[in-house]
Each structure stands twice: as structure tokens, then as C-alpha cells.
Amino acid sequence: MATNNDVTPWKPFESDCCGSGCNPCILDIYQQELELSKKKNENISSSHLNPDTYTQFKLVQITQHVKDVSIYRFELNENEKLGHKVGQHVIIKQNHPTMPGSSITRQYSILSSPNDIGYFELLIKLYENGVMSSVIRNWKPGDLILMRGPFGIIHSEALSRYSSLLIICQGTGLVPFISLLQHLLNNEDSEQMIHLIFCVKSCDQILLSQNLYDFCNYWNFKLTIYISSPVSSNFRLFGPNKTFINKKLDTTALKNEIEKKRKYILCGSKEFMSCMQNYLVEFNVDKSDILRL
Ligand SMILES: Cc1cc2nc3c(=O)[nH]c(=O)nc-3n(C[C@H](O)[C@H](O)[C@H](O)COP(=O)(O)OP(=O)(O)OC[C@H]3O[C@@H](n4cnc5c(N)ncnc54)[C@H](O)[C@@H]3O)c2cc1C
């Protein structure tokens, strides 16, 4: 029987690359996958997450979070941490669901904190016509899933040089910020102001609301949720430092957010990030002050 490691990687289109210098870019991932597939079974390691070889992790729990979104918990050895840093992601490899002999890979941010021991978690949204989504839909506790990583470094020390951060994210683009925000807000010596703008289509797509509400208890954190489709008139966000706005995030709102010594961090679909980056550049924000995850 073919394992995920006996198959040829499915080649992405050049146009799948977002052109924003991601590390690794999906075209680099394809080249790495080609190399790995040549080595066949030599490259499945048995326990630790590694960027160059795949490791099998046991899926132990699937918890539905909101519609089409679940949290997937994977087992680590007792007393073991995954070994990632805040905001990093893994690459998951699976057999292509309809092309026998081909494999597919997708990137997923690590939801759990680098301090969590004995497990790690991913939050994954399943799309109706998504290729990897159709595979993940059949995952069940006990399955062994191939991953490599961690990838994508956020230099949190460099971020701390800015007097404020504006994080603008969309949908599952929120995930990498959960561990980053825990890290930044737990620094009691920091006086950095952080504003998180979270864009969703509908109120039932607000992810990780309990984490977001907890962050709002910090004096230096502010949350604004933009919900693009109509919400019922009695919809409210309760507690300090949070607002919801029932429309799409637009240039007028962004213009009011432009400040000196501010770092702008974007995460979402490539169209979303390009659109937000163009708005910011229009308002004379220096490209070096914009970070796209
Ligand atoms: C660095 C990085 C981190 C990521 N982290 C996460 C994460 O933590 N959780 C998570 O769920 N995903 C995350 N993603 C996205 C993930 O890698 C896949 O792109 C996603 O799961 C869809 O894969 P798929 O094969 O199911 O869909 P594909 O087959 O690639 O796409 C098929 C169709 O699905 C729909 N679709 C796919 N993606 C989107 C989207 N973003 N918005 C709207 N429609 C879409 C579209 O209709 C698209 O045509 C991340 C991506 C990157 C680059």
C-alpha cells in the first residue's frame, strides 16, 4: 500500500505563488517535496518535528469550533514540547484524494503555545471544494499525519522596537497571532499598544473568541471585529477594549490607523493581504513597516 511518502508531489501553478516573499514559498515547497520523494522512506522520522523530513504525529482529538472549523490535537511524548516559536506553521502532506500516486501539501499555523507540553494543536477550516479539505474531512482520532516544520519566523524582539502594532487579519489568518499575542501581552515591562483588526464574513465565523476576550483584559490591547454580512440588531461584544463594525474594512477606517513608529502585520488570503498592503502604501506607510505572514 502506498504511504504518503511513496508518491509524487502535485505541482502547484506559478500563479499559486502570492509573490510576497513567503519563506518557504509554495514553489520552494514543491521543489523540496520533489527531493524528499526521491529519498522515499528514508525520510520519515519517528518523533520530533523537523523542517527537512516528515514526522508522523498521532491525531488524538478533533473538536468542532465553529461551522466548518475544527481544532485538531496531536500527541507528543509526555513532557515534550513541539519545539516551535510563536506564529510558526507546519506543512502537512497527504495522498492526493483523486490522483493516485500524487501527494499534496498545505501549510497550517500552529495554534498552541510553544510552552504546551504533551500535545500541539492546529485550527483548520474545511472548504467545500478544497483538495486538502476533502482529505482532512475523513481524519479520525488515531490517524497518523505526516508533517514537517516549523517554518516562518516572526522576530518578536524586532517587533518590540515599535511603539505600537496594528495586526490586520482575515478568517484563519488569526491563528498565528494567538501565540504571538500571548507572548507579547505577557511581557509586563512592555508598554507597546496592540490593535487587532479581525475581518470575518459573518458573526458565526468569529474564531477563538475566548482567547480574544482574554486579550481584551490587557490595558494595552484593543480588538475591532469587522463583520461584512448583516448581523442581527441585538449582536453585541461585551467587556472592555472591543468594538464590532458591521461592514468591510475600508480605506477610511485604515487611514485613521496610520501612526508613526507602528508596525503593520497582515495575514489572510493573498488578495486580502495585497489589498491591505496597497491601502497602507497609499497612506505613505513604508513597506519595511509592513509584515505579511
Ligand atoms: C503560512 C500559511 C498558514 C496557514 N494556516 C492555516 C490555518 O492555520 N488554518 C487553516 O484552515 N488554513 C491555513 N492556511 C491555508 C491552508 O494552507 C489551505 O490553503 C486551506 O486549508 C485550503 O486548502 P484546500 O486544499 O482545502 O483548498 P484548495 O484546494 O487549495 O482550494 C480550493 C478552493 O477552496 C476555497 N478556499 C481555499 N482557501 C480559501 C481561503 N483562504 N478563503 C476562501 N476560500 C478558500 C476556494 O474556493 C478555493 O478555490 C494557511 C496557509 C498558509 C500559506
Task: Please tag this protein with its features.
293 residues; alpha/beta; Elongation Factor Tu (Ef-tu), domain 3; Rossmann fold; eight-stranded mixed beta sheet; 30% strand; binds flavin-adenine dinucleotide
SSE order and pairing:
Elements (H helix, E strand, L loop, with lengths): L7 E2 L16 H14 L4 E2 L8 E13 L2 E7 L13 E7 L6 E8 L9 E7 L5 H6 L7 E8 L4 H4 L4 E7 L4 H11 L7 E8 L8 H7 L5 E7 L14 E4 L5 H5 L6 E6 L2 H13 L7 E3 L1
Parallel strand pairs: 1-6, 2-3, 9-10, 9-13, 10-11, 11-12, 13-14
Antiparallel strand pairs: 3-4, 3-8, 4-7, 5-6, 5-8
Bound molecules: flavin-adenine dinucleotide.
Order of helices and strands, N to C? EHEEEEEEHEHEHEHEEHEHE
Q: Helix segment count?
A: 7
Q: Quick check: average pLDDT?
A: 90
Shape: globular
CATH superfamily of the largest domain: Translation factors
The name of the CATH topology of the largest domain is: Elongation Factor Tu (Ef-tu), domain 3
Count of DSSP strands:
14
CA-to-CA gap between the ends?
37 Å
* Gyration radius from CA atoms, angstroms: 20 Å
Fraction of residues in β-strands: 25-35%
Most strands sheet: 8 strands, mixed
- Percent of residues in helices comes to 10-25%
